[in-house]
């Protein structure tokens, strides 16, 4: 990821904020609270205005450039003592009207929904520079000293995770080599930046506890002369951490223009050393000729911001109002706290399953704090609506030929917890779990071990069911620890014949495919499914089109290098997850599902959202198109021509069957090739045919007509009280003869082996052989 990528949101924000700095030269100083208030307003409005025109702050470019030059020439950073005039505030509020109108509109019936308050949560003064998002390159971070490479300055990034072993290259913080007050971590913003704050976090390690309890901040334009950040006439002392994980925000008493910033620890946890992870808040001051300032905009006019529950609902409502012909919103249940699990359906005939049309789903927000997936799904929903209306052929085709279901928030309770803290202050795990503390991705019934145990017992895996494994009894008991969110998803999966899905997570950059659960409880082991080749294809489709994953120069997120695996990995080979949604989906339903880890940062700052949409847009679209791979068709009764539900579709050399849906239609995802397919249904004779799957991205039609077994026909005729036709009489007679021959043969064989046994027993040397 480039160090100077810039989004329009950020640009708009900068332009707005920049006029503060410009004003600094001419206006009198005003109070700090005013300053913060105004920054807040600018942040909120400028980011929502991201896709409209730039705020009128742009007009102040001449003044702005003057400030940049003065600031960068002098050794000392320039302090922006004042703030924007009220006119600038008004100018930047381009988009707020619409949103305030949205906020008035409520129509909820759930208790939890009624209790929602119209709370404006405090916005950070300026966006993060990107230590966490990796927008800031390793080369931009330096330190006074460090204990060893794995604790080097490049590890001093907010929320960075360490490997299990300390001592490798990837430890969980920057740690100074000395325990004195001369230590610092330095970030070079490269551009002149209005610094507004620091976020500090302790060291991530399972072996040691280290954190910084107080610190000073120093600023410089040339890395030679440093000025300590002041609070009035005294050097400002910032409050740091009290534990290793909780991020603590320290706002500069006065936002200050500079290029470099240092965090200078003063006190630290008494039993530890000086270790920290940090994020820096600052508004970049771009020159008008900056090549990155505007060409990285998302081209789509979507609502790029983090939507809490209420805002999400309103956004969904606005989309169904905009595209009533192709959308429908429904709920699949409620969270523990009573928030509804909303799904938006996008299809040419919303609300109905059309014969032969595959069903697709995206599920996001299973871990509530992994917020990017939620926003991407909301972006996707808006995008599909807008592009369909525009007549974008690719989208029209997708919407016409597919029934798409989007669940942006599987764990809304968890999300609200993380959202209330904010994208930078939620830490690594806050909001991950359901309200009851359940990790939803470990909460599905473990069907893997049921299947593997049955296979072991039977000795021959082909003798036991390899799909549609029933849910075990313990799981259905009332006191079973099953989250309401999980129950809702399971019945949704059972109701709709989904073919393909992806489960959107965050905190890494990799696509994982099942099985997630390893055999024999191995902590890590490649555990492929019978459809390993197709799953690898699916994972590759997403990973190779995601702009960040596909960048060969990208830095690893935390401590694992997935690039050497082309950014895909078998779930079990990464780490075992019993009870995962992917494994359940594969073993209990027809649906193939992978997990996408969308970004290193679980909860990216709002200014990152337009770029993240661009990073994922093609992947999200092309992945959905994979639902049209392999073979599909309808399985019908030869006489009545009616579709046969629950017919089993077996593909030779693929020890995983799938079943036909209620109308007899089926979809079998397969890579290109020649396949021998056998279809079998209760009461019917099996039918076999050869099906060819080409390279083209559309499914091969492979229909089957099944003939009832003679016994089944006989049963039906008898039930009707009808006369048995001659052909059936003949067939039944042939069947009886065949049965008789088979049973005679079996009896003879049994007798023969008995005879051999008795003879052996009589022979005296028999047991010694
Ligand atoms: Zn996750």
Given as residue ranges, the uncertain stretches (5+ residues, pLDDT < 50) are 1-76, 79-118, 288-296
Helix residue percentage: 25-40%
- The oligomeric state is single chain
Largest sheet: 9 strands, antiparallel
The total of beta strands comes to: 27
Count up the helices.
19
Shape: elongated
Alpha carbon gyration radius: 31 Å
Write the CATH fold name of the largest domain: Aminopeptidase
User: Helix- and strand-based class?
Assistant: alpha+beta
Distance between the termini: 72 Å
Beta-strand fraction estimate: 15-25%
Task: Tell me the CATH architecture of the largest domain.
Answer: 3-Layer(aba) Sandwich
Ligand identities: zinc ion
CATH superfamily of the largest domain: Zn peptidases
Reading off the top of the CATH hierarchy, the class of the largest domain is best stated as Alpha Beta
Mean pLDDT: 84
Family: Belongs to the peptidase M14 family.
Subcellular location: Secreted
GO molecular function: metallocarboxypeptidase activity; zinc ion binding
InterPro entries: CarboxyPept-like_regulatory, CARBOXYPEPT_ZN_1, CARBOXYPEPT_ZN_2, FA58C, Galactose-bd-like_sf, Peptidase_M14, Peptidase_M14_domain
